[in-house]
């Protein structure tokens, strides 16, 4: 399982420090760029033009990915898809089992999400508990017509019956391993690394 | 952070985390049909009030209920305390009932601190004697931030009965921790001797303090705590230290007027000032709920073995 972040988001980490991406590189800068492009194309194809669609990223790195996807949709199909953020902290079922976490922003388009196709965007899909919390959070805000899930990395080990619609890369992992997603918006570089475990 | 007893114990990071969380709380439920979050489902919050306080008690109750906690109200007057039960026995009873958090108001300074020795759960000070009222100071700081953008660098003038005011004491520490300049204005009889050692400016003249004030906080004259006469007459107090319409007009255009309530209209604050657009009095009440939600969230959801605060770190997620 991944380690808790030891620093708040949005502060820069010099390369070589805690979040430098030590471990085996799974995706490089160029790979992430390609993967995000591919997901954007898949969204256009699967949603037949991404009309009535809202991208909601799960803080922190899902928000950056949602923003990138929205920019790509604009580039590829000249369509403006609102990109927001959905913080799920207050809906988690394991709050008292872990170190305290600060709340992230929730930023939903002013017109709401009723009747919209909501695409949840996250960096890593693991047990599925985050997405369960996200679904609860979402239905407290409104009633989307459909909910889809896009993730940069699916590392397996699902504990709930949740399946992503768009996957950047499937990474088979052991539970002891950590997957780290670094994005320029927060970490000064784009990379996905795998560390820990015997692998 | 296991308990919230005083503002002196809060670091700047802690205080800012609470204020930021309160902001997120406000945004999380704003405009919702059902303004309720499942965060504290199954947790029990006990409101233990040895002094009457509708405002603070309902604010804590609302905050806990919005986070789906179970709330038990325990008013000392209708409990066995009136039959002579000790604070310790009350605490042991609450412990046996499995209270996850106890919100306590007590006439004796230090009572919440004492409770932390006997209770496993979190203790939140909702006002103890003339000592501290941390959530009131936090909601005041939240209101200043909301209206003026930030607390740092602002001049906050606190006027009136500093001697008996736990609100003033908590505000002095919190606001200076957050980088504000705090000025106390009061008759010399209503200033504690220790105030000379606080990180504040002291003045006895309200008129000279108006022009550079960003936020003016009027305190209630606490008749119930005054056993001696601290000023010659109500009329004279109002003339010297009351915020009248004329004084309000001399505040800078952006300045806000605050009051922790309940107000003595016409005494420390004129009715027209209390109802003016500068006044934040009703916002303070609303903000109190967000701040108390944030405090309950932060005290009740962290791993009991860890007192450290962490960032949001998405990769920590499972």
UniProtKB/TrEMBL annotation, chain B:
Residue ranges of every copy of the Aspartate/ornithine carbamoyltransferase carbamoyl-P binding domain listed in the record: 2-146
Gene Ontology MF: a single term: amino acid binding
Pathway: Pyrimidine metabolism; UMP biosynthesis via de novo pathway; (S)-dihydroorotate from bicarbonate: step 2/3
Superkingdom of this protein's organism: Bacteria
Catalytic activity: carbamoyl phosphate + L-aspartate = N-carbamoyl-L-aspartate + phosphate + H(+)
Record-listed L-aspartate binding positions: 83, 166, 220
Residues annotated for carbamoyl phosphate binding in this entry: 55-56, 105, 133, 136, 261-262
Function: Catalyzes the condensation of carbamoyl phosphate and aspartate to form carbamoyl aspartate and inorganic phosphate, the committed step in the de novo pyrimidine nucleotide biosynthesis pathway.
Family the UniProt entry places it in: Belongs to the aspartate/ornithine carbamoyltransferase superfamily. ATCase family.
Protein name as annotated: Aspartate carbamoyltransferase
């Amino acid at each position: 399982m991944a380690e808790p972040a030891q620093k708040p988001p949005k502060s820069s980490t010099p390369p070589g420090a805690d979040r430098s991406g030590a471990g085996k590189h799974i995706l490089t800068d160029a790979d992430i760029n390609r993967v995000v492009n591919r997901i954007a194309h898949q969204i256009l194809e699967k949603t037949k033009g991404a009309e009535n669609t809202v991208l909601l990223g799960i803080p922190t790195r899902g928000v950056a990915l949602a923003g990138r996807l929205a920019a790509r949709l604009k580039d590829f199909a000249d369509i403006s898809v609102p990109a927001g953020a959905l913080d799920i902290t207050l809906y988690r079922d394991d709050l008292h089992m872990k170190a305290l976490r600060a709340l992230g922003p929730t930023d939903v388009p002013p017109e709401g999400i009723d009747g919209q196709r909501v695409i949840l965007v996250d960096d890593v899909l693991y047990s599925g508990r985050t997405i369960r919390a996200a679904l609860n959070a979402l239905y407290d805000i409104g009633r989307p017509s459909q909910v889809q899930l896009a993730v940069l990395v699916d590392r397996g080990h699902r504990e709930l019956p949740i399946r992503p619609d768009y996957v950047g890369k499937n990474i088979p992992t052991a539970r002891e391993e950590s997957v780290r997603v670094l994005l320029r918006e927060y970490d000064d570089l784009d990379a996905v690394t795998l560390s820990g475990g015997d692998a | 952070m296991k308990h919230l007893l005083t503002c002196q114990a809060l670091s700047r990071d802690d205080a800012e985390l609470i204020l930021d969380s309160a902001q997120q709380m406000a945004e999380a439920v704003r405009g919702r049909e059902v303004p309720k979050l499942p965060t504290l489902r199954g947790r029990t919050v006990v409101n233990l009030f040895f002094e009457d306080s509708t405002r603070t008690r309902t604010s804590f109750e609302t905050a806990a209920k919005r986070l789906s906690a179970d709330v038990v109200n325990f008013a000392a007057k209708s409990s066995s305390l009136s039959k002579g039960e000790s604070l310790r026995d009350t605490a042991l009873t609450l412990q046996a009932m499995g209270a996850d958090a106890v919100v306590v108001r007590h006439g004796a300074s230090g009572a919440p601190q004492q409770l932390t020795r006997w209770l496993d759960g979190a203790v939140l000070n909702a006002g103890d004697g003339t000592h501290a009222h941390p959530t009131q100071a936090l909601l005041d700081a939240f209101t200043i931030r909301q209206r003026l953008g930030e607390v740092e660098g602002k001049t906050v003038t606190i006027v009136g009965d500093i001697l008996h005011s736990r609100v003033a004491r908590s505000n002095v520490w919190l606001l200076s921790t957050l980088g504000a300049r705090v000025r106390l204005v009061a008759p010399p009889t209503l200033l504690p001797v220790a105030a000379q050692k606080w990180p504040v400016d002291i003045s006895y003249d309200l008129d000279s303090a108006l022009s550079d004030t960003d936020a003016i906080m009027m305190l209630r004259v606490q008749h119930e705590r005054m056993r001696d006469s601290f000023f010659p007459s109500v009329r004279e107090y109002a003339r010297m230290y009351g915020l009248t319409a004329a004084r309000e007009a001399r505040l800078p255009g952006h300045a806000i007027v605050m009051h922790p309530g309940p107000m003595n209209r016409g005494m420390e604050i004129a009715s027209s000032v209390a109802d003016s657009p500068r006044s934040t009095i009703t916002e303070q009440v609303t903000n109190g709920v967000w701040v108390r939600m944030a405090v309950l969230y932060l005290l009740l959801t962290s791993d009991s073995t860890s007192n450290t605060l962490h960032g949001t770190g998405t990769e920590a997620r499972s």
